[in-house]
Amino acid sequence: MSARDSILGKLRSARGPVTASPVPEVRAWYGNPPIAERAQLIAQMRANLETAHAELIVATPDAWPGQLALRLASGGVKRLLMNSGTPEAAQLAIALKDIEVLSFDRPIEAWKRELFDNVDAGFTVVDGAVAETGALIIRSGPTMPRTVSLVPPIHVALVRAGSIQPRLIDAAVAGAWAQNLPTNLVTISGPSKTADIQQTTAYGAHGPRELIVVVVAEELQ
Amino acid sequence: MSAQPLHYEPASQFKARSREALQDAKLRANFRGAMEFLRGKRRAQFPDADELEHLRDLGEAIRKHALANLPELLEQLEDKLNANGVQVHWAETPDEANAIIEAIARRRQATRVIKGKSMASEEIELNDYLAARGITCVESDMGEYVVQLAHEKPSHIVMPAIHKTKGDIAELFHKEIPDTPYTEDVDALIQIGRKTLRRMFAEADIGISGVNFAIAETGTLGLVENEGNGRLSTTVPDTHIAIMGIEKVIAKLEHAIPLASLLTRSATGQAITTYFNLISGPRRPGELDGPREVHLVLMDNGRTQAYEDEEIRATLQCIRCGACMNHCPVYARLGGHAYGTVYPGPIGQILSPHLLGLEASRDLPTASTLCGACAEVCPVRIPIPQLLIRLRTEAQRNPGEHVAHRLRGQGASYSFGEQLVWQFWTGAYAHPALHRVFRWLATRLRALTPSKQMGWTRYRTPLKPAPQSLHDLIRQRR
Predict the structure, then answer these.
(1) Which of B190, B197, B283 sits opposite A197 (nearest CB)?
(2) Contact between chains at B194 and A169 (C-beta distance less than 8 A)
(3) In angstroms, rounded to a whole number, what is the distance separating the alpha carbons of residues B221 and B295?
(4) Of A49, A127, B122, B152, which sees the most CB atoms within 10 A?
(5) Is the ipTM beyond the 0.85 threshold?
(6) Which pTM was predicted?
(7) Coil/strand/helix, residue A175
(8) B426-462 pLDDT, tens per residue?
């Protein structure tokens, strides 16, 4: 008998026939999304991200490329990797001066060493965010490789203000996650960190040391 | 790194090791500080007692529902994972799990493995198994890396190197990593670890990880972590192998949300970890990174035994947050190594007997004051003290007795002499005439009681019958 059949057989004979047990209703437990103004959600995101040692910039659709370009230049970024295929990436590329733009256009195997050693920052347009925890939501795909937000020492994430949800459950419901998960869906709530040495928090463990979040909003508060 | 075989100490030497641990002032100070820190962090995450209790109800209901439907959910998980392109393997024993992983590594001609944190891989001592077969397996979680470098085992399931000070780690890095100056600066130490391991992420042939929960309806592996090593291990190498106990499956994606909240708040006092990672398959056509092969090893290793008995089944509700150990007065004084098991502390005391059998673990369930702190903080309401008592009973049960669900090692602590004493005791109290004789003898022969009474007199004055029995005293008062 295979290990599979043996394990399943033991479980079945131990339990007996399945009895209809109600599936816990998580959505009902959390209730409807709390009503919040966009400005409130952004403020909550800022508080959470700053506590987690991330930086948050709120800017208008016209001003953000210039602002971010300045921020990256002052942070010493020389080579910026982008996830292609978004209008924002094109906008930023135009605004950058003296920063080389790399696009992820080959499989990782073709340039793994370069990706690990010679890229200063990765730019992603994220799929959404969660105010309650400051989490950014990233769905992998052909134009969103998983490593852009992971390997370079600085991660720059652009959030469209309209995509901020109050809670993680709201983001999962609004995005119908259960029906259309990508190969990898990840939420990111700050720079990489660890407290494994004597409970002392240190940033830049294995992922990015810095997380810069740009929230693009029509109206600034 | 030298391939020095490492094994967990036999849990049967638990008593001797705990006496040693209690004498170690530095160890006790390290654990005391760490436990107070973690308890404070958790407390700050649950300011609203009502919210906590309601969330625990929900967490318990989700885990109970998953266990009630376990075989069906495992089949659904397998189907969905297969549809997503993930290969599923089943292992009843640690040997089978190791052999499955080795076979994948051989087929991929892999020699270098990078590992994210996985307690299931500790159960099977995977690093040693692979090292003995020429495959290098490097731990990438900072705490696990420290412990591996020191040729030790984790002393806590969430914070593996919690027994070490920054001074210990400074010395270790200085000695073990070439060209590393001695520094006690934690940021500098982490950067040393980062630099050393970064090359290994890029060069590894295989990444191995654990799983925090597997979602049946979508065929998804969920991992929570802060360092990014879990994401790197599961993203950069060409092959990803995940290993998990069969109990970690849950029915629905939305169930992962409250469970993750309970897990991270209870474990490290975080509202959410830096990364909450849902993996639903290998790289698809058109994608430019991610592993090209993803495997999941579903492991039994004693879990089906715990599942058989309805009371004991609650053991499998565990989501491995470690809050029970952080709040346990025994764990806080002994530290994790004294237990000699992969899982120390209260959860280890109720889980290890199923992984190892009661012969090897019979003393573990006795190392508790039954104060109930573990059950009070458990995010999924496992009745740990009740299960400790149950395991004590099973360890004392006559090995020949037939019971509905016999545990491996039933009667490991059974002693004929002790049973005889108890039988006499029961008989004396059931028969008044016998009791009178016993009373008369005990009060008259009290001078003959030995002054050394085994374990009792180690810390206490000897037991001696009173000159007059309670019965006699009451009779005189009438």
Answers:
(1) B190
(2) no
(3) 11
(4) A49
(5) yes
(6) 0.94
(7) coil
(8) 999 999 999 999 999 999 999 999 989 888 898 899 9
